[in-house]
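Thread amino acids onto this structure.
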């Protein structure tokens, strides 16, 4: 979720951080919600024991898994808001208490960030298609505008923000609902010394410190994922999380991805990061090879019946970047060999 130097990124981050204020949301008004019809895109709330494998780069002492975090809810959950407050500064994000007692961050469609909630949902759906468990669930929710306003009326700040910024369409508000992750911390990969250390892990022939192999794998996937999605705001600060174990990297704050007209300079930075990456995840690349424009259109699906989540132009741009990613990887395989290039499982 880029947060503009602690705007939406910090905001969504706040929506994830464990620092819940302990205040009980008292409004009892619930908001009728409509869940997205996209099938089988939710992370299980109680995942089975995952397979365990040792790393391929000599760090045999470290076991790595593909376990998904246990999310507060998934996209089949239709709980409705009982209370909420604004947690944004320059963005439009609300922390909600749901009728189930669970907590979530809600990014509604809003004037200053029009359509950007779609990036959160598209990123989650793409991650599911790629078989990676690094993007928290982001679910389309359509709330009745009057009921949502009533839920937020307890807070003057939230009520004013809703009235001033939220876009209402025929009495409804579209947006993304994302689980609040207690115990989440930030992985400052955009800052030194981690920035230089992580880049070194992904260079051909460079050593990876003991115990860091799986973090390196996930860092490589982050570079590739952001290149594909066109997320131009990953490195503005606190847009990469770690789950409470400190081992599972979370690609949070994806609302700067899948944009119609992203900043070219930032996309060129993403390309430079990809060009400078020599080690990739074999599974990630294999998943990417399967995704063409037609398949991507099915992956992204609709946000409501007859209302595609992304435009055909955006979907085609994603397909083009996937082809470019695969071509770059294949060129590196030709130059350095498959074992060195598809270095991570």
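Threaded sequence (345 positions):
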């Amino acid at each position: 979720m880029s947060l503009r130097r602690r705007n939406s990124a910090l905001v969504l981050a706040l929506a994830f951080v464990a620092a819940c204020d302990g205040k009980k949301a008292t409004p009892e008004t619930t908001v009728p919600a409509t869940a997205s019809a996209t099938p089988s895109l939710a992370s299980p709330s109680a995942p089975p024991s995952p397979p365990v494998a040792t790393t391929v780069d000599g760090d045999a002492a470290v076991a790595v898994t593909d376990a998904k975090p246990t999310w507060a809810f998934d996209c089949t959950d239709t709980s409705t808001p009982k209370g909420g407050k604004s947690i944004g500064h320059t963005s439009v994000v609300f922390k909600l208490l749901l009728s189930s007692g669970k907590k979530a961050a809600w990014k509604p469609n809003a004037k200053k960030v029009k359509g950007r909630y779609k990036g959160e949902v598209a990123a989650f759906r793409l991650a599911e298609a790629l078989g990676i468990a690094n993007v928290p669930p982001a679910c389309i929710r359509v709330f009745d505008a009057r009921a949502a306003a009533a839920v937020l009326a307890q807070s003057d700040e939230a009520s004013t923000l809703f009235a001033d910024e939220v876009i209402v369409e025929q009495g409804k508000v579209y947006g993304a609902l994302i689980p609040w992750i207690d115990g989440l911390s930030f992985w400052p990969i955009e800052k030194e010394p981690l920035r230089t250390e992580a880049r070194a892990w992904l260079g051909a022939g460079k050593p990876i410190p003991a115990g860091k192999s799986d973090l390196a794998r996930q860092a490589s996937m982050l570079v590739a994922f952001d290149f594909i999605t066109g997320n131009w705001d990953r490195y503005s600060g606190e847009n990469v999380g770690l789950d409470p174990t400190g081992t599972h990297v979370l690609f949070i704050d994806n609302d700067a991805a899948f944009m119609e007209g992203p900043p070219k300079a930032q996309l060129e930075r993403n390309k430079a990061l990809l060009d400078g990456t020599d080690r990739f995840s074999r599974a990630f690349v294999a998943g990417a090879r399967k995704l063409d424009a037609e398949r991507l259109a099915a992956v992204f699906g609709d946000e409501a019946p007859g209302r595609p989540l992304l435009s055909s132009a955006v979907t085609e741009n994603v397909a083009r970047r996937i082809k470019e990613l695969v071509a770059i990887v294949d060129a590196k395989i030709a130059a350095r060999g498959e074992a060195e290039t598809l270095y991570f499982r």
